[in-house]
Specification:
Blueprint (H helix, E strand, L loop, with lengths): L50 H21 L5 H12 L5 H8 L3 H14 L3 E5 L7 E5 L1 H21 L5 H15 L1
Antiparallel strand pairs: 1-2
């Protein structure tokens, strides 16, 4: 009796062979491309006709340099956007932030609590016309941080769009707004 155990395995399929030029059934022979030969240069021409592809590539380029700049302020992109909106819209409500940034209220709640209680960047005040709502305001520390972070974001934007003229940059922004507004 052998000390080796045997394991039952399903029967293997015969390996597929690449078609040859002399096919017995008279089929056309496969081209090197069909056989999976190496690609020397990737053809992205179709993808480059898609707005979504272009927007995503721009986003990736911008975010790659934006993240380290904002890390210096302990801000992620959405947090930067929230602070900037509060900075330029004192008294904005949580509901308005969620609407403008297209984020879910539960995702905003924790962020606001962190920036209010742990970092002291925002404060809530009664809304002047809606007794049920609270307006969001930056503290002195919040305004200072927002100014510094916005300056860094502007520098990042200049770097990302450096190959565009000022007119091209304005046109790009205007065209993007036509899509997302």
């Amino acid at each position: 009796m052998s000390s080796y155990s045997t394991v039952s395995t399903p029967p293997s399929r015969p390996a597929k062979r690449a078609p040859t030029r002399e096919s017995a059934r008279g089929k056309r022979a496969a081209t090197p491309k069909e056989l999976g030969s190496a690609v020397d240069q990737v053809d992205t021409s179709f993808l480059q006709t898609l707005v979504g592809y272009g927007a995503r590539r721009v986003s990736l380029a911008a975010i790659a340099s934006f993240l380290p700049r904002m890390a210096a302020y302990e801000l992620r992109p959405v947090e930067f956007s929230v602070l900037s909106l509060i900075h330029h819209n004192p008294g904005i409500t949580s509901r308005q932030l969620c609407s403008v940034l297209n984020i879910q209220p539960p995702n905003l709640v924790g962020m606001l609590q962190h920036y209010e209680k742990k970092r002291g960047l925002i404060e809530r005040r009664p809304h002047p016309s809606d007794g049920r709502a609270l307006g969001l305001h930056l503290t002195t520390a919040g305004r200072q941080l927002a100014r510094k972070a916005e300056h860094a974001a502007s520098q990042n934007d200049a770097q990302v769009t450096a190959r565009l003229s000022a007119a091209e940059r304005r046109t790009l922004l205007r065209l993007l707004e036509k899509i997302y507004l």
